[in-house]
Amino acid sequence: MTATIPHRTTTARGPGRVRLAADGVRLAYGADVVVDRLDLELTDGSFTAIVGPNGCGKSTLLRALGRLMRPTSGQVVLDGRAITSTPTKDVARVLGMLPQTPVAPEGLTVADLVARGRHPHQSWLRQWSSDDESVVAEALQWTDMAELADRPVDALSGGQRQRAWISMALAQGTDLLLLDEPTTYLDLSHQIDVLELVARLHAERGRTVVVVLHDLNLAARYAHRLVAMKDGVLVAEGTPAEVLTEQLLADVFDLEARVVPDPVTGTPMVVPVRRLNR
């Protein structure tokens, strides 16, 4: 039987179940506290965008959620278990993370990069198989990267490179996907291209998505839930309409702005007026 990229199953974890949580998490670089006593729950099948000004702790929080950083206090919980006490391979089978600027070894082809997504499923008892080949081929096809499979990753455009990394995460077979600024350095058309792909992963493949974004209008358009941070603290969470208020924009971003309906999607659209002097 040919292997395929799995869809999310609801028998083991039904809709609304908390998959990933920060429980009183405190994160610091040396004496510099970046995130302080933060609580956050991410439910199965959700699409969440973390927003906030530069330096507020968004990416640091995502690193902790992805087990790349250990809290100085509190804990991150994955499927009811402390993530730091969960074996690395077990985490990698259910959680995939793409950092802000992922780097591939020089000369590595797209196909080889995507194949690395299968590593968590390998062991001395289970070596590379035709099933793995099928999963990689489907991931490349699904992300429209099949024609570029033999091209070196470092020869791709920015948008193509992001699609290659997302293809690797798809081949990994995880149903939790964390993305740190996946649209960084991309022009607007490629930003839309990448976010449309992530939205398809969520809608058609049932992935639970957490993404850090700077662009509030794109966050409101694609995510179903926003989490707003300032100075390492969670200050608001809810639907885009609940979070993106003119008062919050003033309090969190020091920005006077108007919030109007997006003429295409009806989601909140932020129209900046001026920076507030405080």
From TrEMBL:
Keywords: ATP-binding, Cell membrane, Ion transport, Iron, Iron transport, Membrane, Nucleotide-binding, Transport
Protein name per its UniProtKB record: ABC transporter ATP-binding protein
GO molecular function: ATP binding; ATP hydrolysis activity
Residue intervals passing through the bilayer: none
InterPro entries: AAA+_ATPase (IPR003593), ABC_transporter-like_ATP-bd (IPR003439), ABC_transporter-like_CS (IPR017871), P-loop_NTPase (IPR027417), Siderophore_ABC-ATPase (IPR051535)
Intracellular or extracellular location(s): Cell membrane
Superkingdom of origin: Bacteria
Bilayer topology annotation: Peripheral membrane protein
Matching SMART domains: AAA
CC per GO annotation: plasma membrane
Organism: Goekera deserti
Gene Ontology terms: biological process: iron ion transport
Limits of the ABC transporter domain: 20-256
Main location: membrane
